[in-house]
Write a structure and sequence with these properties.
Length: 360
Amino acid sequence: MLARAIKSRHHPILAHIIPMRRCNLSCSYCNEFDKVSDPVPTVEMLRRVDLLAALGTGIITVSGGEPLLHPELDEIIRAIRSHGAIATIITNGYLLTPERIQRLNRAGLEHLQISIDNVMPDEVSKKSLKVLDRKLEWLAEFAEFDVNINSVLGGGIQNPEDAATITRRALALGFETTVGIIHDRGGQLQPLKNTERAVYEQILKERKPALWAFAYDNLFHKNLTLGQPNDWQCRAGSRYLYVCEDGLVHYCSQQRGYPAIPLERYTREDLEREYSTKKPCAPFCTVSCVHRVAMIDLVREEPREALTRFFPPAMPGAPLELPFGIRVLTSIFLPPENGRPQGMAHKMIASAAMKVLGIK
Ligand code: SF4
Ligand code: SF4
C-alpha cells in the first residue's frame, strides 16, 4: 500500500465508509451518529466497495455510527479483501464477544481500532476502560488482526490522567496505542489545558512510539497540544475519501457537504482537483487519519523537507539526527545532498531495493 501510494498520487490511499449512522452509545462530543437510522443494504455497501476499488483505494475503513451494528459487516470486510485492499474497522467495542472476534478473523479483518475515552463511564462518554476491559482481554486472546487502542485528551474528558492509564493497559495487552485530541463539533481544535499537555508528554515518554508515530507527533500533535496551527496540505477528497451512509463523497466526517458528490460519479478529475484544493479548516484540524495520509504525500513530493520536519534537529541549525533505518533508506533512495553523481554500485542497490518494495 505504502509503495503504491508513494509511486503514484492518482488514487485514494484511505477511504472511510459508513454502513450505518446509528450508534448504541451517545458520546456528548460526537457529531457522527444518530439513534434511528437503518443499516445501509449490504448490496449497496458492496457496490460502494467495488467503486472505491475501481478508484484504486488502498485501505478501506468501515466506521460509523457503530459498524458492528450492521448485520452483514463480515460480508463487507470480505468484499474489501477480495479487491486486495486493506480492511479495517473503527468500533466502540461494546458488541465484541469471542465469537464475534473469531468471525472478524474469518472475514479477513486486518486492523481494528477502539477509542477509549475514560476509565469510568460518565455523562460525556461511556467508552470506558472499566466497561471495555473484558473485551480487550478477548481481543488479546482471539484476534488475528492488529488492534490499536486510541486514548483521548480534550473535549470535556474529565480526568486527563485516564489517557495514561488506558495507554498503559493497552501496552500491557500487547496492542498498538495512539493518543487523539478530541475535536469540537466542527472538527476543530480546542487547545489542551496544562494538565492535559503534561499527560500527553508522559504518554509519549512511556509508549516509545514507532518511527511513523514519532514523526506524526513532531509534525502535527506537538503544535495541536499547544493550540498552534499546522502548516500542511489537506488531501481530503483525493487521497482520503469519506463516503457517508447516503453514498456521497465528503472531505471528512467534520466537513460533510463538501464536495458531496455521489461515489458513482466521483472521477479521477475530482481526485485531481481536490489534491490541491486549499481547505480553510486545515490549520487547526484534528482529523488524524487525514494527517497521516498527507505525510505520505509529503514524503513523495519533498522527501528531504519531510525528514527535516519528521525528525527535527534538537537545536535550530544543528544537523539532522535521523534514526539508523531512515539513514539507510535516505542513502539508498535520495540523491546525495552534495550533488555528486551516484556510483554504479549505489544505483544498483537503489534499483534492487525499489524492485523489492514494488516501487519499480
Ligand atoms: S461510540 Fe463513536 S460513533 Fe458512537 S457516539 Fe461515541 S464517538 Fe460517536
Ligand atoms: S483539514 Fe481536511 S480533514 Fe481536516 S477538517 Fe478540513 S477537510 Fe477535514
